[in-house]
Amino acid sequence: MNYVWLILGMALVTYVIRAAVFVLGERLPFPPVVRTALSFVPVTVLTAIIVPMTVSPHGDGAEITWRNPQLVAALVAVIVCVFTKRPLVTIAVSLAVFFLWQFVVLG
Questions:
Q1: Measured between alpha carbons, how far is 41 from 9 in angstroms, rounded to an integer?
Q2: Does the global pTM surpass 0.70?
Q3: How far, in Å, CA of 102 to CA of 87, rounded?
Q4: What are the TM regions of this chain, as residue ranges (predicted)?
Q5: What sign does the dihedral 82-85-90-92 (CA atoms) show?
């Protein structure tokens, strides 16, 4: 039952924060420094989610080896993205590499 209260509490906090931004919207002008800082939030959050999953997929510590399919696919994704700059191609190629690496190379 404690988990239910925890989840409901987190949902309430998230809702209040988001609702405050929508309600206050134009009435609360942000200084340019804050706007610049807020523009980096999506990239920062995405990086904070992806890097641990890529480097330590099992949570036991860093697995920087060729036997880590997440790491191999992430490196391929970076290379494909740099050369093509097309998100859909990057996703498709990196997923193909991930599954091929996991099922064919690692068997």
A1: 23
A2: no
A3: 22
A4: 6-25, 37-55, 67-83, 88-106
A5: negative
Place of tokens 């064919």: 104
Measured distance CA(105)–CA(32) in Å, rounded: 50
What DSSP character marks residue 30?
P
Q: Give residues with Cβ within 8 angstroms of 30, minimum separation 6.
A: 38
Range of the domain at 60: 31-105
Percent of the chain, pLDDT > 90? 67
Domains contained in the chain, number: 1
pLDDT by residue (tens digit) across 16-60?
988 887 887 777 787 889 889 988 999 999 999 999 999 998 888
Whether residue 74 contacts residue 94, with contact meaning beta carbons closer than 8 Å, is answered with yes
Residue 51, SS3 per DSSP: helix
pLDDT for the residue 18: 85
Instruction: Tell me which amino acid residue 93 is.
Output: V
In a domain, 25, yes or no: no
| Residue 39 to residue 104: CA distance in whole angstroms | 40
